[in-house]
Each structure stands twice: as structure tokens, then as C-alpha cells.
Design brief:
0% of the residues lie in helices and 66% in strands. The protein has 68 residues and is mostly beta strands. The model has no long low-confidence stretch (mean pLDDT 95).
Length: 68
């Protein structure tokens, strides 16, 4: 699922355009410099690809839904 990640004063924010859902990241199990499993404040858990470097945000990524 394609999602957009952006930095806000409250931390990382995730937007899922296909579902028109916006949520804040509350927990990250990091893999590499950036990526891994992100838990959102709406209960969703998404897995992002591990990256060697922190990406410039906002950016769009392909994320795997682990739970809703």
C-alpha cells in the first residue's frame, strides 16, 4: 500500500490516500537507519523497507500492512 510520510511538530505522520486516513506514528521498531515496523495511533501496524539513510520527508513509500 502506498503511503506518504511527513514530519510534523508531533512527530511522524502517515497519510494513506487510497483510504483517506491520516495517523501519527506512536512507536517504531527500527530496522537500519530508517524503516521497520511503525505503530500508528489508529491501531494500524505498518512495515516499511529498511533504508541505509534517513530519507528527505515528505516522501511516499510502499508499506506492508501487518494489522489494522
Amino acid at each position: 500500500m502506498k503511503v506518504t510520510v511527513r514530519e510534523t511538530p508531533k512527530g511522524l505522520n502517515i497519510y494513506v490516500p487510497k483510504k483517506d486516513i491520516e495517523a501519527h506514528v506512536i512507536k517504531i521498531e527500527q530496522a537500519g537507519a530508517w524503516g521497520g515496523v511503525f505503530e500508528l495511533d489508529n491501531g494500524w501496524v505498518l512495515e516499511f523497507p529498511a533504508l541505509e539513510e534517513t530519507p528527505k520527508l515528505p516522501a511516499t513509500f510502499e508499506a506492508k500492512v501487518l494489522s489494522k
